[in-house]
Amino acid sequence: MSVTEASGVSGVVRPVGPDFEALRRQDPELAEVLLGEQARQCSALQLIAAENFTSPAVLAALGSPLANKYAEGYPGARHHGGCELVDVAERLAIERAKALFGADHANVQPHSGSSAVLAAYAALLRPGDTVLALGLPYGGHLTHGSPANFSGRWFDFVGYGVDPESGLIDYDQVDALARKHRPKALVCGSISYPRHIDYAAFREIADEVGAYLIADAAHPMGLVAGGAAPSPVPYADVVCATTHKVLRGPRGGMVLCGAGLAERIDRAVFPFTQGGAQMHTIAAKAVAFGEAATPAFAAYARQVVANARVLADGLAAEGLAVTTGGTDTHLICADPAPLGLEGRAARGRLAAAGIVLDTCALPHGDARGLRLGTAAVTTQGMGEAEMMRIGALLAAVLREEVDNRQAREEVRELTQAFPPYRS
Ligand SMILES: *Cc1c(COP(=O)(O)O)cnc(C)c1O
Questions:
Q1: Are 150 and 280 part of one and the same domain?
Q2: Does a structural domain hold residue 357?
Q3: Alpha-carbon distance 376 to 380, whole Å?
Q4: 125 and 249 inside one domain
Q5: How far is it, in rounded angstroms, from Cα 326 to Cα 96?
Q6: Residue 302 bears catalytic tag
Q7: Which of 249, 277, 292 is the last residue of a domain?
Q8: Which residue of 58, 262, 266, 302 is surrounded by the most CB atoms within 10 Å?
Q9: Domain of 304?
Q10: Ligand 1 cavity residues, CB under 6 Å
Q11: pLDDT per residue as tens digits for the range 77-92
Q12: Are the CB atoms for 13 and 324 separated by under 8 Å?
């Protein structure tokens, strides 16, 4: 069915989209919050490794009347009427995701990265099964066995670590733990591991013990899309990811898998763990996958990594202890202890200066480090020269060589020269 037939109209349709003035008239209190948040995002240095700036096209899809549509089920097999056009949107998202990542099957409905992981576990595991994943103290995600999360409550997680000296995954330890505990699934992926993951090594270990391999690639998936990081798709039985983070789409998740698991994954998403799909978000995912397939996005992904390398080198030169000695990705973990600060205090001091980032676990001990990423600043158009400035500024703030007013002035210069949204 054509778009015209399905919509029942011919001729020009005037798009209804975000009407900020309508919001301001109706609800000035909330409008102020939105404007303030936009100003905050555009005027501070955004170094949170999981964040990025979506395109105006992605925002337009998110703010469209597709948000009104109920669509339980999958394209061509819905539990609601009137799904002909949102089916087209979801099929586009699925086909684009499959092409982008070379996957047999894509489910683009998970509401978040955590829901994608939940669906993967629901498809492959039974409550009480043993799962081997990177331990939370080493950068495992909540869904990798936290006692505060469904994963830790319903499954028996065993954690592998990283080498306390090098900060690198010790594949021999993973192998030994797999042989000892015979897990039903092996999970690779992290919220703070700055290096490429050796998916072939994980596959080999999983095969030795007959375990499923689940790659939770939320962080590097945007780099994979741009050809700047190795892909888990040829190795893992199931790949979970977010569509935000480096991938620069709307907040949401997806699951990729081979044809043999397609039906189990789809049923694990709907109806097992979710209800109606969010069609505006799925349309925005389609837009983002389209963007990620362009040469411009490949150049972006390469620049994200180049920027992270320069920033990591800059921080190391300033005396911070950079975990693993550097990075292969958008992500940097650095211990500010050599400057006499613990991670949480350092984060607070930087926030007051207009530099926004997270803390993270460190390979050794209880203290926390700083986690930074270059996805957002690279979207803004910043390059290596700006990364050198940011590294020096960050260290100067931590050493209290500049006050907050001076630091904020430099942040303002950078963000005004590289606005995330040009109007
Ligand atoms: C970000 C992330 C998630 C969760 O994504 P949400 O959308 O916040 O639920 C899961 N696993 C890993 C490894 C992540 O980095």
A1: yes
A2: yes
A3: 6
A4: yes
A5: 33
A6: no
A7: 292
A8: 58
A9: 295-417
A10: 50, 112-114, 117, 141, 143, 189-191, 216, 218-219, 242, 253
A11: 999 999 999 999 999 9
A12: no
Q: What angle do CA 415, 421, 423 make, to 5 degrees?
A: 115
Whether 368 and 347 map to the same domain: the answer is: yes
Q: Assess if residue 360 is contained within a domain.
A: yes
Concerning whether 401 is annotated as a catalytic residue, the answer is no
Per-residue pLDDT tens digits for 13-43: 888 778 899 999 999 999 999 999 999 999 9
The CATH number of the domain holding residue 207 is 3.40.640.10
pTM above 0.85, yes or no: yes
Domain-ending residue, one of 292, 323, 355: 292
Three-class secondary structure of residue 201 per DSSP? helix
CATH of the domain at 379: 3.90.1150.10
Structural tokens at position 114: 């955590």
Is there a single domain that holds both residue 253 and residue 280?
A: yes
Is 72 assigned a catalytic role?
yes
Q: Give the span between the Cα atoms of 345 and 325, in whole angstroms.
A: 22
- Name 303's Cβ contacts closer than 8 Å, sequence gap at least 6: 378, 383
Choose among 118, 108, 100: nearest CA to 75: 108
- Which atom of ligand 1 is nearest the CA belonging to 189? 13
- Tokens (6 digits) for 246: 């480096």
How does DSSP classify residue 238? E
Same-domain check for residues 320 and 399:
yes
Q: What is the pLDDT of residues 211-227, one digit of tens each?
A: 999 999 999 999 999 99
268 shares its domain with 122: yes
Q: Where are the alpha helices (DSSP H) in 18-133?
A: 20-26, 28-43, 56-62, 84-101, 113-124
Residue to mutate (ligand 1; options 136, 141, 187, 371; most atoms within 8 A of CB)? 141
Shortest-distance Cα residue to atom 3 of ligand 1: 113
| Residue 203 maps to a domain | yes
Sign of CA dihedral 220, 223, 225, 231: negative
The answer on whether 35 is annotated among ligand-binding residues is no
Pocket test for ligand 1, best of 108, 109, 112, 114 (most atoms within 8 A of CB): 114
Report the number of distinct structural domains present in the chain.
2
